[in-house]
Amino acid sequence: MWILRRYAFCTFTRAAAQQIPVLSRVSREKYKEKRRMKYVLVTGGVVSGLGKGVTASSIGVVLKACGLRVTSIKIDPYLNTDAGTMSPFEHGEVFVLDDGGEVDLDLGNYERFLDVTLTKDNNITTGKIYQSVLEKERKGDYLGKTVQVVPHITDAIKDWIESVSLIPVDGKEGPADVCVIELGGTVGDIESMPFIEALRQLYFSVGQDNFCLIHVSLIPVLGVVGEQKTKPTQHSVRELRALGLIPHFLACRSAQPLVENAKQKLSQFCHVPVANILNIHDVPNIWHVPLLLRNQSAHDAILKQLDLLSVARHVDLQEWTRRAETSDNITKSVRIAMVGKYVGLTDSYLSVVKALMHACIACSLKPSIDWIAASDLEDDSAKLTPEAHAAAWKNLRGAACVLVPGGFGDRGVKGMILAARYARENSVPFLGICLGMQISVIEFARSVLHLDKANSEEFDPQTPDRVVIFMPEGSKTHMGSTMRLGSRRTLFQTPDCIAAKLYNNSEYVDERHRHRYEVNPDIVGSLEEAGLKFVGRDESGKRMEILELQDHPFYIGVQFHPEFKSRPGRPSAPFLGLVLAATGQLEAFVKRQQNGNV
Asked: Rounded CA gap, 336 and 402, in Å?
């Protein structure tokens, strides 16, 4: 009967969801009459950076493997409306969704693990909540009441969660069965207090059978003692319980598997059954995390807590197991030179790294990434930091291929231009993404067209040779959500190009964008006459999306960010092409594809 009731409700379409991010209370009550959503809340304690995102994604994987439909929500307590204006050094990469939402990188984990397409409303921030409440206050929706954190902010949070959880993200009609919610930060942070209270109220209102709380905490080992210490977790759980949230499960992060004595202590002092104490210890790669949870029967315990045992099927993670084991058993590697601005924090390029991993595993290889700070390649670096300069050039020359990812600002641009020139002149496979594509255009214009002052308006607004210009509809006064964002269509200009063949000989491709500057259409004719072909353009034909260099084994630049749509088992085409070219397999791959063998 529960399944029949579930499929009876299918009124909330994706289009409607994007127009109305929060349902009216009447609509929500009608939904509740049909079936309550099941919520899994993942919180964190002791320290940040424990891997709550991977844990939440892995929980979603095992529940999906039990035949359930899963959606997810990430709560970020910062005041920013979204992650769009945040520095990669501050917060890691900005992940872009199909609808143009600039969101936290954990939503990238959700999409890759669960193979879903999320919306910007699946990322809740303090800024979004307060903005929505203040807009209602200005319109007089609160009928003269004093607007307060409780109940108005907390009600807005609950309304947002309950409404967004109904948005289908897997391409099917109707809401999911389970919504996995990750609360960013650490329990006790002052910024997260309104969310903690809202989630406490949500827990109370939906009922015990519809809510499951999993607390991720650290079990450290002190070097002197050598014993796994449970006290930090005990204190974290005590604070969580004091705030009105009682954990059903503990997900304990540790370097080594949790010893039985530590489990007994945690159970006794945290009031959590031993069977519900999950251990997520260090593993060779993150694809093992869902397998760790399955091996500890986490899915059965969660299903029992949510009263879903009767509708779930036996967990099936065969494909996931093969993927993890394949990755472990690969011995050969390929060296990839990553020339970027933010190499000091690898999370700045998290999706790029994942896309390289997906492509390499498809070729039975492991990625060996040489992180090269673009500024270390520059001539000035030879005088200021000669050792770093020499090491950077050694790594660049020793790599099988070169990748220049996206970025903003002029720092390191000279080094990126040198890297693009090195790859072009030495027939080294090259992939430029967004800024990387623009860099390749600047380098080609300078070196081949002899436009010595060729530049982007971003780096030199007064340059006489503007090969990269500010996009016509862009804003120079506001930074947030003013770029060309989200999924846009690129039309291939000819089927006889490497890019089209990598994209399964398609006539077009839809990829996600995030940029303010683009190739100047006035210079395109001169560039193409010299051999730099723009084989992909937007539907107007005026925006350059994909470039290829004639008489080069693999020299491709893309204005979009293909890394955002790469998936395990379905690697992004440009990344796959780069790895194939670096290992001498590209020509054979293209022939097999043309013969229908791929």
From this structure: 6
Torsions phi, psi for 208 (to 5 deg): -60, -35
How many CB atoms sit inside 10 A of residue 565's CB? 22
Specify the DSSP class assigned to residue 36: P
**DSSP-assigned states of every residue in 82-100:** SSTTS-HHHH-PPEE-TT-
Contact in structure between 233 and 219 (CB atoms under 8 Å): yes
Structure tokens at 216: 């991720």
Q: What is the pLDDT of residues 74-126, one digit of tens each?
A: 999 999 888 888 887 777 899 999 999 999 999 999 999 999 999 999 999 99
Residue 397 confidence (pLDDT) above 70: yes
What angle separates helix 350-362 from helix 106-114, to the nearest 10 degrees? 30
**DSSP string across 473-510:** T--SS--TT-SEEEEEEEEES-SSSHHHHHTTT-SEEE
Contact between 158 and 107 (Cβ < 8 Å): no
The residues annotated with a catalytic role in the active site are 434, 561, 563
Tell me the pairing of strands 123-125 and 70-76.
parallel
DSSP state of 310: T
What tokens were used for 367?
Answer: 């990625």
Cβ–Cβ under 8 Å, residues 68 and 180: no
Query: pLDDT, tens digit, for every residue of 199-241?
Result: 999 999 999 899 999 999 999 998 777 889 999 999 999 999 9
Which of 437, 386, 419 lies closest to 561 in space, CA to CA? 437
* 411 vs 391: CA distance, rounded Å: 19
Q: From CA 298, how far away is CA 575, in angstroms rounded?
A: 35
Instruction: Judge if the upstream peptide bond of residue 405 is cis by omega within 30 degrees of 0.
Output: no
Residue with the larger pLDDT of the pair 50 and 556? 556
DSSP symbol at 221: B
Query: Rounded to an integer, what distance in angstroms lies between the CA atom of residue 253 and that of residue 276?
Result: 14
Any residues with CB less than 8 A from the CB of 372 and at least 6 apart, and which? 337, 338, 339, 340, 343, 392, 395, 396, 419
Residues in the chain: 598
In whole angstroms, what is the distance from residue 160 CA to residue 153 CA? 11
Strands (E), 31-82: 38-44, 70-76
- What is the Cβ-side half-sphere exposure of residue 112, based on CA atoms within 13 angstroms? 28
Neighbours of 250 (CB within 10 A): 26
Run of H or E including 432: strand 430-433
DSSP H/E element including 72? strand 70-76
Helix then strand then coil, % of the chain, to nearest 5: 45, 20, 35
What are the tens digits of pLDDT across the range 230-267?
999 999 999 999 999 999 999 999 999 999 999 999 99
**Nearest Cα residue to 330 out of 362, 291, 353:** 362
Alpha carbons 42 and 180: distance in angstroms, whole number: 7
- Mean per-residue pLDDT, 278-290: 92
- DSSP E strand boundaries for 200-323: 211-218, 249-254, 277-281
* pTM attached to this predicted model: 0.89
Pairing status of strand 123-125 against strand 366-373:
unpaired
Query: In which element (H, E) is residue 232 found?
Result: helix 231-242
